Amino acid sequence: MAIYLTKESKVLVQGMTGGEGMKHTRRMLAAGTNVVGGVNPRKAGRTVDFDDRAVPVFGSVADGMNATGADVTVVFVPPAFAKAAVVEAADAGIQLAVVITEGIPVHDSVAFTSYAKARGTRVIGPNCPGLITPGQSNAGIIPADITKPGRIGLVSKSGTLTYQLMYELRDIGFSTCVGIGGDPVVGTTHIDCLAAFQDDPDTELIVLIGEIGGDAEERAAAYIRDHVTKTVVGYIAGFTAPEGKTMGHAGAIVSGSSGTAAAKQQALEAVGVGVGSTPTETARLVLDRLGAEA
Q1: Nearest-angstrom CA–CA distance, 211 and 62
Q2: pLDDT per residue as tens digits for the range 37-74
Q3: Which of 139, 138, 20, 135 is nearest to 76 (CA)?
Q4: 111 near 74, Cβ under 8 Å?
Q5: Is 24 a catalytic residue?
Q6: How many Å is the maximal CA-CA distance in the chain?
Q7: What does the pLDDT read at residue 293?
Q8: What is the pLDDT of residue 213?
Q9: Is 260 known as a binding-site position?
Q10: Has 88 been labeled as part of a binding site?
Q11: In the chain, which residues have pLDDT < 50?
Q12: Which residues on neighbouring strands pair with residue 149, listed in sequence order?
């Protein structure tokens, strides 16, 4: 089992013929992802060769879905075109849209995440590394060779910290790792992933990675208290961030005590979540919790 993405997923890539799209489509294919087509209205009808795989290019998401049965799209288009790309995918009825693009205006993200949700399309991102179910499928830019299938579910605002925890816990492995993105507005939240991991029988422990800014982690803590029975281990990036400064992601800004790493840690620990002070300590907490459960 896994959440959102499995070996059965059929993946389109919007922007596949661009530089980033080409590079990461090749990596996704190498990871075993069933990439069934690209989308580029100006290159419809062509095929692109990726080593031993020829991938067709369609003029629209709807055309690609009709021809292949695709249920996932990965968006590698410039920021100015991201809103239109997601709206097109939602109008076509795609189940999952993974938006890798960074630098999308917040008002565009508000518009397309709301639009997609109303049409039953789950958006992951924007400004995210995507998600991977190791050994099954990889939709986005997460390295596929740093971990293996296992029993940990991971949800993270940070791409880099996603990779680090995947690597540090590679001997145990992961059910699914989801990079939700760190922008102020994202389509899938910590809470969404917590709910999915709670329902996934193959996920035994959940790792939640947050960062300073906003109140997503505090809301996740309340959800864990009321709905999650599985063990959760957390890490919050930004303990040394200066007050009032934007740090890294567009959503990571602290005002007074609101949004600080300490406040988030306190909220999570109050509901029984072990919170590491570093990624390595977080990994040790996971090992301790799994050892105690064995």
Answers
A1: 37
A2: 999 999 999 999 998 899 999 999 999 999 999 999 99
A3: 20
A4: no
A5: no
A6: 57
A7: 56
A8: 85
A9: no
A10: no
A11: 250, 294
A12: 174
